Amino acid sequence: MRIGLIGEAMIELAGTPLERRWGGDTLNTAVYLARQLGDAHPVHYLSALGDDSLSDGLLADWQAEGIAIERIARLPGRLPGLYLVETDDAGERRFHYWRSDSAARHWFASGLDFAPLFDGLDAVYLSGITLALFAAPERKRLIEALAAFRQQGGRVWFDNNYRPQLWSVAEARDAYAHLYAIADIALITEDDEVRVFGDEDGALIARVQAAGCPEIVVKRGAMPALVASDGQLVAIATQPVEHVVDTCAAGDSFAAGYLAARILGATPADAARNGHWLAGRVIQYPGAIIPAGAMLR
Protein backbone atom coordinates (compact mmCIF):
# COMPACT_ATOMS: atom_id res chain seq x y z
CA MET A 1 0.00 0.00 0.00
CA ARG A 2 1.23 3.49 -0.94
CA ILE A 3 0.12 6.11 1.56
CA GLY A 4 0.11 9.89 1.11
CA LEU A 5 -0.24 12.36 3.99
CA ILE A 6 -1.05 15.96 3.14
CA GLY A 7 -0.36 18.89 5.43
CA GLU A 8 2.28 21.32 6.68
CA ALA A 9 5.47 20.58 8.58
CA MET A 10 7.34 23.32 10.41
CA ILE A 11 10.48 24.19 12.30
CA GLU A 12 9.88 23.64 16.03
CA LEU A 13 11.50 25.63 18.83
CA ALA A 14 11.13 24.10 22.28
CA GLY A 15 12.91 23.49 25.57
CA THR A 16 15.05 25.56 27.92
CA PRO A 17 17.35 26.63 26.41
CA LEU A 18 15.51 26.56 23.09
CA GLU A 19 16.32 23.69 20.75
CA ARG A 20 15.44 23.51 17.06
CA ARG A 21 13.49 20.48 15.95
CA TRP A 22 10.63 19.93 13.48
CA GLY A 23 7.07 18.70 13.56
CA GLY A 24 3.51 19.10 12.32
CA ASP A 25 0.50 16.88 12.91
CA THR A 26 0.39 14.98 9.61
CA LEU A 27 4.18 14.83 9.41
CA ASN A 28 4.35 13.33 12.91
CA THR A 29 1.90 10.66 11.79
CA ALA A 30 3.94 10.08 8.62
CA VAL A 31 7.14 9.50 10.62
CA TYR A 32 5.53 7.02 12.98
CA LEU A 33 3.81 5.23 10.10
CA ALA A 34 7.08 4.93 8.17
CA ARG A 35 8.89 3.55 11.22
CA GLN A 36 6.27 0.84 11.71
CA LEU A 37 5.64 -0.08 8.06
CA GLY A 38 9.11 0.10 6.51
CA ASP A 39 9.61 -0.24 2.77
CA ALA A 40 6.70 -2.63 2.27
CA HIS A 41 4.19 0.24 2.49
CA PRO A 42 5.78 3.49 1.23
CA VAL A 43 4.79 6.66 3.07
CA HIS A 44 4.73 9.86 0.99
CA TYR A 45 4.47 13.40 2.38
CA LEU A 46 2.49 15.90 0.29
CA SER A 47 3.46 19.47 1.11
CA ALA A 48 5.77 22.34 0.13
CA LEU A 49 9.02 23.83 1.40
CA GLY A 50 11.29 26.63 0.28
CA ASP A 51 14.60 26.47 -1.58
CA ASP A 52 16.60 27.45 1.52
CA SER A 53 19.05 25.51 3.66
CA LEU A 54 16.48 24.93 6.41
CA SER A 55 14.21 23.21 3.89
CA ASP A 56 17.16 21.16 2.63
CA GLY A 57 17.78 19.97 6.16
CA LEU A 58 14.14 19.04 6.71
CA LEU A 59 14.05 16.96 3.54
CA ALA A 60 17.24 15.15 4.51
CA ASP A 61 15.83 14.35 7.95
CA TRP A 62 12.54 13.08 6.52
CA GLN A 63 14.29 10.89 3.97
CA ALA A 64 16.35 9.42 6.80
CA GLU A 65 13.06 8.52 8.49
CA GLY A 66 12.00 6.60 5.39
CA ILE A 67 9.51 9.16 4.09
CA ALA A 68 9.22 9.58 0.31
CA ILE A 69 9.67 13.27 -0.55
CA GLU A 70 9.19 13.46 -4.33
CA ARG A 71 5.69 14.92 -3.86
CA ILE A 72 7.00 17.85 -1.81
CA ALA A 73 7.10 21.05 -3.87
CA ARG A 74 10.02 23.50 -3.55
CA LEU A 75 8.97 27.14 -3.82
CA PRO A 76 11.76 29.64 -4.64
CA GLY A 77 12.11 32.41 -2.09
CA ARG A 78 9.79 30.84 0.48
CA LEU A 79 10.57 29.41 3.91
CA PRO A 80 9.11 26.74 6.19
CA GLY A 81 6.67 27.76 8.89
CA LEU A 82 7.80 28.06 12.51
CA TYR A 83 6.25 27.32 15.87
CA LEU A 84 7.33 27.56 19.47
CA VAL A 85 5.92 25.12 22.01
CA GLU A 86 5.77 25.64 25.78
CA THR A 87 5.16 22.65 28.04
CA ASP A 88 3.88 22.83 31.63
CA ASP A 89 4.74 20.52 34.54
CA ALA A 90 1.96 18.09 33.55
CA GLY A 91 3.25 17.77 29.99
CA GLU A 92 0.45 19.87 28.48
CA ARG A 93 1.58 22.19 25.71
CA ARG A 94 0.86 25.64 24.31
CA PHE A 95 1.79 26.60 20.75
CA HIS A 96 2.81 29.90 19.16
CA TYR A 97 2.83 29.93 15.34
CA TRP A 98 4.55 31.89 12.57
CA ARG A 99 3.10 30.18 9.52
CA SER A 100 0.91 32.63 7.56
CA ASP A 101 3.64 33.24 4.93
CA SER A 102 5.05 29.72 4.81
CA ALA A 103 5.83 27.82 1.64
CA ALA A 104 3.06 25.33 2.37
CA ARG A 105 0.44 28.07 2.78
CA HIS A 106 1.41 29.59 -0.57
CA TRP A 107 1.32 26.14 -2.19
CA PHE A 108 -2.13 25.39 -0.77
CA ALA A 109 -3.39 28.67 -2.26
CA SER A 110 -1.91 28.07 -5.73
CA GLY A 111 -4.78 26.21 -7.41
CA LEU A 112 -3.34 22.73 -7.02
CA ASP A 113 -4.22 19.93 -9.39
CA PHE A 114 -4.78 17.13 -6.91
CA ALA A 115 -5.18 14.31 -9.46
CA PRO A 116 -1.45 13.94 -10.21
CA LEU A 117 -0.65 14.54 -6.54
CA PHE A 118 -2.81 11.55 -5.56
CA ASP A 119 -1.90 9.44 -8.58
CA GLY A 120 -0.54 6.01 -7.66
CA LEU A 121 -1.54 6.29 -4.00
CA ASP A 122 -3.78 3.76 -2.29
CA ALA A 123 -4.71 5.93 0.68
CA VAL A 124 -4.65 9.62 1.61
CA TYR A 125 -4.52 10.85 5.20
CA LEU A 126 -5.31 14.40 6.25
CA SER A 127 -6.39 16.30 9.34
CA GLY A 128 -8.62 19.15 10.37
CA ILE A 129 -5.49 21.30 10.46
CA THR A 130 -4.82 20.37 6.82
CA LEU A 131 -8.32 21.53 5.87
CA ALA A 132 -7.96 24.77 7.84
CA LEU A 133 -4.83 25.75 5.91
CA PHE A 134 -6.81 25.96 2.66
CA ALA A 135 -9.00 28.96 1.84
CA ALA A 136 -12.64 28.01 1.31
CA PRO A 137 -12.55 27.67 -2.53
CA GLU A 138 -9.35 25.59 -2.43
CA ARG A 139 -10.71 23.49 0.42
CA LYS A 140 -13.80 22.70 -1.65
CA ARG A 141 -11.57 21.55 -4.51
CA LEU A 142 -9.54 19.37 -2.14
CA ILE A 143 -12.66 17.69 -0.78
CA GLU A 144 -13.96 17.09 -4.31
CA ALA A 145 -10.60 15.57 -5.28
CA LEU A 146 -10.68 13.28 -2.25
CA ALA A 147 -14.22 12.18 -3.13
CA ALA A 148 -13.09 11.37 -6.68
CA PHE A 149 -10.04 9.53 -5.31
CA ARG A 150 -12.29 7.37 -3.16
CA GLN A 151 -14.70 6.69 -6.01
CA GLN A 152 -11.71 5.38 -7.97
CA GLY A 153 -10.91 2.89 -5.20
CA GLY A 154 -8.64 4.94 -2.96
CA ARG A 155 -9.03 5.13 0.80
CA VAL A 156 -9.45 8.35 2.78
CA TRP A 157 -8.35 8.57 6.41
CA PHE A 158 -9.30 11.68 8.40
CA ASP A 159 -8.23 12.97 11.81
CA ASN A 160 -10.40 15.83 13.08
CA ASN A 161 -7.50 17.69 14.78
CA TYR A 162 -9.03 21.15 15.38
CA ARG A 163 -7.19 24.44 15.95
CA PRO A 164 -9.59 27.36 16.61
CA GLN A 165 -6.86 29.87 15.73
CA LEU A 166 -6.95 28.75 12.10
CA TRP A 167 -10.66 28.94 11.23
CA SER A 168 -14.19 29.30 12.57
CA VAL A 169 -16.37 26.61 14.13
CA ALA A 170 -18.85 27.03 11.27
CA GLU A 171 -16.16 26.41 8.65
CA ALA A 172 -14.87 23.37 10.50
CA ARG A 173 -18.36 21.94 10.97
CA ASP A 174 -19.10 22.16 7.26
CA ALA A 175 -15.75 20.70 6.16
CA TYR A 176 -15.83 17.87 8.71
CA ALA A 177 -19.33 16.85 7.61
CA HIS A 178 -18.04 16.48 4.05
CA LEU A 179 -15.03 14.46 5.19
CA TYR A 180 -17.08 12.08 7.31
CA ALA A 181 -19.17 11.34 4.20
CA ILE A 182 -16.10 10.12 2.27
CA ALA A 183 -13.71 8.87 4.97
CA ASP A 184 -13.06 5.15 5.34
CA ILE A 185 -11.59 5.71 8.80
CA ALA A 186 -12.25 8.70 11.08
CA LEU A 187 -9.89 9.29 14.01
CA ILE A 188 -11.69 11.74 16.28
CA THR A 189 -10.34 13.58 19.29
CA GLU A 190 -13.45 13.91 21.45
CA ASP A 191 -12.58 17.32 22.95
CA ASP A 192 -12.00 18.79 19.49
CA GLU A 193 -15.23 17.34 18.14
CA VAL A 194 -17.22 18.72 21.07
CA ARG A 195 -15.83 22.18 20.34
CA VAL A 196 -17.06 21.93 16.76
CA PHE A 197 -20.36 20.02 17.06
CA GLY A 198 -21.22 19.98 20.77
CA ASP A 199 -22.08 16.27 21.03
CA GLU A 200 -20.24 13.48 22.81
CA ASP A 201 -19.79 9.70 22.89
CA GLY A 202 -22.82 7.92 21.44
CA ALA A 203 -24.34 10.95 19.76
CA LEU A 204 -20.99 11.82 18.19
CA ILE A 205 -20.52 8.31 16.84
CA ALA A 206 -24.10 8.11 15.56
CA ARG A 207 -23.68 11.40 13.68
CA VAL A 208 -20.45 10.31 11.99
CA GLN A 209 -21.92 6.91 11.12
CA ALA A 210 -24.98 8.60 9.64
CA ALA A 211 -22.67 10.69 7.45
CA GLY A 212 -21.33 7.44 5.98
CA CYS A 213 -18.04 6.68 7.73
CA PRO A 214 -17.78 2.92 8.44
CA GLU A 215 -14.89 2.91 10.96
CA ILE A 216 -14.66 5.43 13.78
CA VAL A 217 -12.14 5.78 16.59
CA VAL A 218 -12.82 8.32 19.33
CA LYS A 219 -9.68 9.37 21.19
CA ARG A 220 -10.41 10.51 24.75
CA GLY A 221 -7.03 11.22 26.34
CA ALA A 222 -6.44 8.96 29.33
CA MET A 223 -9.95 7.51 29.07
CA PRO A 224 -10.64 4.41 26.96
CA ALA A 225 -10.84 4.97 23.21
CA LEU A 226 -14.16 4.08 21.59
CA VAL A 227 -13.98 2.01 18.40
CA ALA A 228 -17.08 1.67 16.23
CA SER A 229 -16.99 -0.67 13.22
CA ASP A 230 -18.94 -3.56 11.71
CA GLY A 231 -21.93 -2.80 13.93
CA GLN A 232 -19.91 -3.09 17.13
CA LEU A 233 -18.78 -0.51 19.68
CA VAL A 234 -15.90 -1.40 21.99
CA ALA A 235 -13.96 0.60 24.58
CA ILE A 236 -10.18 0.06 24.58
CA ALA A 237 -8.40 1.15 27.75
CA THR A 238 -5.23 3.20 27.68
CA GLN A 239 -1.97 1.96 29.14
CA PRO A 240 -0.94 3.80 32.33
CA VAL A 241 2.02 6.18 32.04
CA GLU A 242 3.64 7.14 35.32
CA HIS A 243 5.51 10.22 34.14
CA VAL A 244 4.15 12.32 31.28
CA VAL A 245 6.86 14.57 29.85
CA ASP A 246 5.21 16.07 26.76
CA THR A 247 1.80 15.34 25.25
CA CYS A 248 2.83 16.78 21.88
CA ALA A 249 1.99 14.31 19.08
CA ALA A 250 0.02 12.00 21.36
CA GLY A 251 -2.95 11.99 19.00
CA ASP A 252 -0.75 11.94 15.89
CA SER A 253 1.16 8.90 17.11
CA PHE A 254 -2.05 7.14 18.16
CA ALA A 255 -3.32 7.63 14.61
CA ALA A 256 -0.09 6.16 13.22
CA GLY A 257 -0.23 3.21 15.58
CA TYR A 258 -3.85 2.52 14.72
CA LEU A 259 -3.46 2.84 10.95
CA ALA A 260 -0.22 0.85 10.80
CA ALA A 261 -1.82 -2.01 12.67
CA ARG A 262 -4.89 -1.96 10.42
CA ILE A 263 -2.68 -1.98 7.31
CA LEU A 264 -0.86 -5.00 8.71
CA GLY A 265 -4.11 -6.87 9.29
CA ALA A 266 -5.01 -6.17 12.93
CA THR A 267 -8.61 -5.86 14.08
CA PRO A 268 -9.86 -2.36 14.98
CA ALA A 269 -9.68 -3.24 18.69
CA ASP A 270 -6.10 -4.47 18.46
CA ALA A 271 -5.20 -1.49 16.30
CA ALA A 272 -6.47 0.83 19.05
CA ARG A 273 -4.29 -1.03 21.55
CA ASN A 274 -1.30 -0.42 19.31
CA GLY A 275 -2.26 3.25 19.06
CA HIS A 276 -2.41 3.53 22.85
CA TRP A 277 0.94 1.79 23.21
CA LEU A 278 2.69 4.12 20.78
CA ALA A 279 1.09 7.29 22.19
CA GLY A 280 2.10 6.14 25.66
CA ARG A 281 5.71 5.88 24.51
CA VAL A 282 5.68 9.25 22.77
CA ILE A 283 4.41 11.25 25.75
CA GLN A 284 7.34 10.05 27.87
CA TYR A 285 9.80 12.03 25.73
CA PRO A 286 10.14 15.72 24.85
CA GLY A 287 9.09 16.85 21.39
CA ALA A 288 6.86 15.43 18.71
CA ILE A 289 9.34 12.84 17.40
CA ILE A 290 10.93 10.42 19.86
CA PRO A 291 14.09 8.39 19.19
CA ALA A 292 13.41 5.38 16.99
CA GLY A 293 14.95 3.12 19.62
CA ALA A 294 12.28 4.21 22.09
CA MET A 295 9.69 2.44 19.94
CA LEU A 296 11.18 -1.00 20.47
CA ARG A 297 8.85 -3.27 22.42
From TrEMBL:
Keywords, in A-Z order: Kinase, Transferase
Entries under PROSITE patterns matching the protein: PFKB_KINASES_2
Domain of life: Bacteria
Gene Ontology MF terms in the entry: kinase activity
Any Pfam family the entry gives: PfkB
Domain Carbohydrate kinase PfkB: 18-291
PANTHER family: 2-DEHYDRO-3-DEOXYGLUCONOKINASE_2-DEHYDRO-3-DEOXYGALACTONOKINASE, SUGAR KINASE
Family: Belongs to the carbohydrate kinase PfkB family.
Descriptive protein name: Sugar kinase
Species assigned in the record: Jeongeupia naejangsanensis
